[in-house]
Structure formats: structure tokens, C-alpha cells
Amino acid sequence: MTALDIQISVEEGNWPDEEALLAFSSPVLEVAAAFLASEEKQPLPKMPPELSLVFTDDASMRAINAEWRNQDKPTNVLSFPAFPVTPGSMPGPMLGDIIVARETLEREAVELEKSFDQHLTHLLVHGFLHLFGYDHMEDDEAERMESLETRILARLGLSDPYGDRTPD
């Protein structure tokens, strides 16, 4: 596994305690980091890179989304890379922040007929890829990012969250 220095903060919402969230999140993100390093030849800093996971509620997420993206609504996950980075380039020692909203995650999991843990795993992988410069604003970028998500989730024993492809 690829070592990561993960800082956890429960800001708002009905989340498990920070220790339980770290125990859940660490293996997910370490598999994602190891996948990027081995399959995508993503360089990683020699010291374990640090990232912050913030767990909050829809009200807080709505405020963050309005402030940073001019979208006055909650969203499931937001990522804030610490430094500008493009896929395949060396990130800094601090990768950035991933913020997850509880109520949106729960609602989407029900709509997608996924368990809470399955959907949280997907959102963590999705947010993690953003910290490495992956995006989904353009069709080709979205296809690349979704392919990576699908392949990483397959390593974690989960099916394609987009339902339309098989892992490479």
C-alpha cells in the first residue's frame, strides 16, 4: 500500500467518529494512490503526502459550494488541491482537501441503489482523483476520470458506478 498522511475532521452532520472515518477512508485512498502510482505511473512525494478529509452536512456544503463555485446548492463532494497539478505531474507534499456532505451522500446512495459505504467509497476516490488534476468538465476528461474511478473501484471490489463499462 501507498502511505498517506490523512487528517480527518467532522465539521457537521451525523457522521461516525473521526477514528472510524479514518479506518474506513485510509484503505480506500491507499488503494487509489497505489493504483495511480503503479498503473498511471503517477509520481508521489517521498514522504507520505498529506490530505484532509472534511465530513460535513448539506448546509455547510451549500455555503462552500456557493463561495467557491458560485453554485448555491449542496453537492456530494468537493475537492480543493493544495497546489495546481496536472495528471501525471509530481504533487506537493500536501495534496489538498476533500469535503463530503452527509445528506447528499445518503440521498444519492438510495437513488443509485448503493449502500452508504459503497457510495462514500466512490466519492472518496472521485475526490482523490481531483487532487491529482483529473477533471470531468470536458467529455474526454470525464471519460478518462470515470475510467480511472471504475478501475480503482474494481480493485476495491465495487462495480462500475456509471454502469456502462467494464474495468480495463
TrEMBL record:
SUPFAM superfamilies: Metalloproteases ('zincins'), catalytic domain
EC code: 3.1.-.-
Entry's family note: Belongs to the endoribonuclease YbeY family.
InterPro entries: MetalPrtase_cat_dom_sf_prd, YbeY, YbeY_CS
Species name: Ensifer adhaerens (Sinorhizobium morelense)
Compartments where located: Cytoplasm
Keyword Cytoplasm: yes
Function recorded in the entry: Single strand-specific metallo-endoribonuclease involved in late-stage 70S ribosome quality control and in maturation of the 3' terminus of the 16S rRNA.
Domain of life: Bacteria
Protein name: Endoribonuclease YbeY
Pfam families per record: YbeY
Cofactor list: Zn(2+)
Binding residues annotated for Zn(2+), in chain numbering: 126, 130, 136
Cofactor binding comment, as recorded: Binds 1 zinc ion.
Keywords assigned by UniProt, alphabetized: Cytoplasm, Endonuclease, Hydrolase, Metal-binding, Nuclease, Ribosome biogenesis, rRNA processing, Zinc
